[in-house]
Design a protein that fits this description.
The protein is α/β, with parallel strands linked by helices and 342 residues long. It is 39% helix and 14% strand.
């Protein structure tokens, strides 16, 4: 499998990475959409067999169980696997009315250091290859967050750092702070990006391109919507992710997304492949893409996604997909685009 450099770091990551969000039974936001442990293990083994070298998890996935299983399954394979995990949110929040304390969440030094130590124990390793903050925290100074992460690198507990779910302005502010304070900088941004959800292209993707940041893409099929198994004017199939996450389905159940799916299906028919493969191939063709995180619940789903590696979209295909998926960028982006190259 093709390897791409992650930002300006020394990490070479496979163009597909394994998302471990479906590992372990969950009682909170992933309840009902995870895999049984035996099937999750088969997905893990298959991913490594086909050349995926990055496993992405987080301390909140299945309330820590995802990290535990990941740590168990990489035993004896650690030299083949890059480990990525995250901190920011409270573990188990929402289960049984439990409420987090002030240091059970956020990006303060106290929470970051404790969360990292706990993740290292669950993963059964002495170093995390890519440690990511799961979302920005406006209540904590950027300098404090970056200094804590820099200390973890200097202590040998973390190799590189990244961020996820950041606004463009906060990302640039973080890069500026790292440069000014001479601390480690974020080398990668984990973000939602797909033909159905292109909002990151307003500011975050251009920032990654201009400042040499890698990208790890989550929800590349818009929570499965772009797989093609959903039909206009019909409810989400029982047992599907969008059946469990009804608000997400409601956000996609509109004329723009259904018309987009029609175009994707036509391109898929032209290439004798699937809607999912076309949607992933569109991302693979973007020069800003470092790696696409695949969170398959079954081996069959994983193999369906891998079909994208053999799809070579033609310029006319990309143009059709770009046009069908183009959002209303709003001000000032539309204003600027209408007047370029003046």
């Amino acid at each position: 499998m093709e390897l791409r450099r992650l930002g300006t770091s020394g990490l070479k990551v496979s163009v597909f990475s394994l998302g471990a969000m479906t590992f372990g039974e969950s009682t909170t936001f992933m309840k009902g959409v995870t895999s049984p442990d035996d099937e999750a293990r088969r997905v893990f083994d298959r991913a490594l067999d086909v050349g995926m070298n990055l496993v992405d998890t987080a301390n909140v996935y299945s309330e820590g169980r995802s990290e535990v299983l990941t740590g168990q399954w990489i035993a004896g394979k650690r030299d083949r696997v890059l480990l990525a995990t995250k901190c920011r949110f409270p573990i188990g929040f929402g289960a049984g009315g439990q409420k987090p304390g002030p240091y059970d969440m956020g990006l303060s030094r106290q929470h970051i250091v404790r969360a990292c130590e706990d993740s290292l124990k669950r993963l059964g390793t002495d170093v995390i290859d890519l440690y990511q903050v799961h979302m920005q925290d406006g209540t904590v100074a950027i300098d404090e967050t970056l200094r804590a992460l820099d200390d973890l690198i200097r202590q040998g507990k973390v190799r590189y750092i990244g961020c996820s779910n950041y606004t463009g302005y906060r990302l640039i502010e973080s890069l500026w702070s790292a440069d000014k304070r001479n601390t480690a900088r974020f080398e990668a941004v984990q973000l939602q990006w797909s033909l159905a959800v292109r909002d990151a292209e307003r500011e975050v993707i251009p920032a990654c391109r201009n400042f040499g940041l890698g990208t790890l893409i989550w929800s590349p099929l818009a929570r499965g919507f772009l797989s093609g198994k959903y039909q206009r004017d019909q409810p989400a199939p029982a047992g599907s992710r969008l059946d469990a996450w009804k608000d997400s389905f409601k956000a996609l159940d509109n004329d723009r997304c259904w018309s987009l799916l029609d175009v994707i299906r036509k391109v898929a028919e032209k290439h004798d492949t699937t809607a999912a493969a076309v949607s992933l191939a569109w991302l693979l063709a973007r020069p800003e893409t470092s790696s696409i995180i695949v969170g398959a619940r079954t081996v069959e789903q994983l193999d369906d996604n891998l079909a994208a590696l053999s799809v070579r979209l033609e310029p006319v295909d990309i143009q059709q997909l770009d046009e069908a998926s183009k959002p209303d960028w709003g001000y000032p982006y539309s204003f600027i685009a209408a007047r370029e190259p003046w």
